[in-house]
Design goal:
single chain, 644 residues, mainly beta, Maltoporin, Chain A, disordered N terminus
Length: 644
């Protein structure tokens, strides 16, 4: 086999395998985020995660809110989080990790790998717990029905005790089928349903002035006992692929995501004074539903050319999303104080208003190219045309209709300066969502408009040793900025340019010691629009000056199967209000723990134990401009995994 044929077959085989995700990992007892992560930009496997970025924050913005989620590389519009029984792992694609990734997005991409049925029978049981009182059990497995057909399943039931004293009970059922009628075709339908009960609503704290609020003690729920959530979340879909020829692969993914809220509430202590007194209020929301049908059809053709490989993608992406919001009832419980629980009885009924409706239809057609030259470098680019239509219907307000057909494009290039040094640069322009208005806004829960964003980045990757890789990069990301106006309406008030630098160091330092370290330094700047009213600070809410992480895993010689790990996170200070008059202080967190791998009745097992936030540095969380929660203090968590 010559080099060009081998390279082409490797690429095509990888793309075909992606259609059904990674084969079911029958040894979940081997899961370890530190040893499995390829870099420090964001990785999760099973119940473990690490990285400077996650699905809610990449380079200062949210890939989830922006709509930049993928399932095995194919477009997915999420309304309800993918269930743990469905997902094997997830990774954040930014900078060089997104090199060659078709249709890259400015705010980064979150790519989920599903847990697909394997050809062999196997299962794992995971029982988790923590010192707050959480207790749960998960069963996931695979059962072949024939040489061509395998069944995957997952069950989970958990009672969760949250740090703020609220709790819930939830259960999830997942089913998938992997069918290979012939070697060149693979089809995998799946469905996962979560039901959540008695999910008590926590409290948000809104100070009356420009100061940080006084927060309650941990494990103290101050809200009314009857104010809880009840919802059903569903994710279903179909992944398929077909090898049409030696160098042709057709992939298709179709997904349905539903968040069906039966009832929900938001507790707030507003106008909080420095002594912790304020006004207790509650928003009750009527039943509402958010649902989206999305997917992608992609045809990929590879052209071998000596030491070069040309890969061309033709893609059609589609989504049809509907959201219901508004109609909330407002209850004023009167004066309240930190540490005092609301004892008001539940009303016989709520005076809900008419729901508002938001519908988005979008079709995006594009072509992408990825060229790879062995030992020389790689170049890729893509261009798409989006046909976007959004209609918002609010009672007693004229129907708002937005149409747009922007051109979206991206390009990246990487050059191998030596065998161990690669430099890269890229540019991307995308159409992204902006999330919803925060719970203390006059237009709370209202979907925000789609926006055009752009990003430039560059960097270098190099090998420190044979097994340790480092990446250093810079980026410049520009997008509209949202904040409060003088009427407390959350809307676009300007633009924000987020400039920053990031780095990652990861790999095996020795055969026993693995490490993942990284950081991001941000220098964002807000430019207020001419029509903005109120005071708009120069720094965006919720973006810290920096975030640094360091994780290490040591396979000890003390006892066979014993591994110890440590994790350190340091977040810089960040603005808490649109006017920048209040900042949340810097916060450090130290986690220590270990894995013990052993045999239990002849089966592989792992006991995981971890102390989180060793020095009990809770600090403040932020849910929007001037609205606060508390972070967890010190607690212990763990799980026992048994491979059956």
């Amino acid at each position: 086999m010559d080099s060009r044929t081998g390279m082409c077959r490797t690429v095509m085989t990888a793309m075909l395998a992606c259609a059904s995700s990674a084969a079911y990992a029958q040894e979940r007892s081997q899961e370890n985020a530190v040893t499995q992560a390829e870099d420090a930009f964001g990785f999760a496997v099973g119940r473990e995660s690490l990285g400077i970025y996650n699905a809610g924050n990449a380079r200062g913005f949210s890939p989830t809110a922006a709509g930049n989620l993928r399932i095995d590389g194919l477009y997915f519009d999420q309304m309800f989080n993918l269930q743990s029984t469905l997902v094997d792992s997830s990774s954040i694609k930014v900078g060089l990790s997104a090199q060659g990734y078709p249709f890259a997005a400015p705010s980064g991409i979150v790519d989920y790998t599903l847990r697909a049925p394997g050809k062999d029978a196997g299962a794992s049981v995971v029982t988790n717990f923590d010192s707050y009182g959480t207790l749960g059990t998960e069963l996931s497995g695979s059962q072949p029905l024939s040489k061509q057909l395998s069944l995957g399943y997952g069950l989970n039931a958990t009672h969760v005790e949250f740090p703020d004293g609220t709790d819930n009970f939830n259960h999830t059922e997942t089913l998938s089928i992997r069918w290979r009628p012939v070697s060149a075709i693979e089809i995998m339908p799946f469905v996962s349903i979560t039901n959540d009960y008695h999910d008590e609503a926590g409290t948000f704290y809104v100070p009356a002035g420009s100061y940080l609020p006084k927060l309650p003690k941990q494990r103290h729920n101050e809200g009314a006992a009857w104010a809880d959530y009840r919802y059903t979340g569903t994710n279903a879909g179909l992944l398929s692929s077909a090898r049409l020829g030696e160098n042709w692969v057709l992939r298709f993914g179709a997904f349905r995501s539903i968040n069906d809220l039966k009832h929900s509430f938001a507790n707030l202590l507003v106008d909080e004074q420095p002594d912790g007194s304020g006004e207790r209020v509650l928003f009750a929301d009527p039943p509402n539903k958010a649902a989206s049908t999305s997917g992608e059809l992609r045809l990929t053709h590879s052209i071998p050319d000596g030491p070069r490989l040309h890969v061309i993608h033709l893609s059609v992406r589609r989504r049809d999303a509907r959201r219901e919001f508004g109609g909330s009832d407002f209850i004023d419980f009167g004066p309240g104080r930190i540490g005092e629980k609301v004892h008001a009885p539940e009303p016989d009924s709520f005076n809900f208003g008419e729901l508002s409706h938001d519908r988005v239809k979008q079709t995006t057609v594009g072509v992408a190219y990825d060229g790879r030259w062995k030992n020389v470098g790689e170049i890729s680019f893509g261009i798409s045309r989006a046909d976007f239509r959004k209609q918002t219907v609010i009672p007693d307000v004229p129907v708002a209709l937005t149409k747009s057909r922007p051109w979206l494009y991206n390009g990246t290039a990487a050059a191998n300066l030596t065998k161990s040094i690669t430099v890269y640069a890229g540019y991307a322009r995308g159409l992204e969502e902006s999330g919803t208005a925060p719970p203390n806004a006059a237009n709370r829960n209202e979907p925000l408009p789609a926006i055009l964003t752009q990003q430039k980045d560059a960097g270098v990757r190099f090998s420190l040793t044979r097994d340790v890789k480092a990446v250093v990069g810079v980026f410049d990301l520009t997008r509209p900025y949202f904040g409060f106006d003088s009427l407390n309406v959350f809307k676009q008030v300007g633009t924000v340019e987020s400039r920053g630098a990031e780095f990652s160091v990861s790999g095996s330092v020795t055969p026993r010691l693995s490490m993942v370290a990284g950081g991001v330094f941000l220098k964002p700047r807000v430019t207020a629009s001419d029509t903005a009213d109120g005071t708009i600070g120069s720094k965006p809410v919720g973006l810290p000056t920096h975030l640094l992480i360091a994780n290490a895993n040591w396979k000890t010689p003390i006892a066979k199967g014993l591994e110890l790990d440590i994790g350190l996170i340091h977040r810089g200070r960040m603005p808490a209000t649109t006017d920048n008059l209040v900042y949340i202080p810097a916060r450090a967190r130290l986690d220590v723990g270990g894995h013990y791998r052993f045999k239990l009745a002849g089966r592989s097992a792992t006991f995981r134990l971890q102390m989180v936030n060793v020095f009990d540095n809770a600090g403040y969380g932020i849910a929007g401009s001037g609205i606060y929660t508390s972070n967890p203090g010190r607690y212990v968590q763990g799980y026992l995994t048994i491979d059956l």
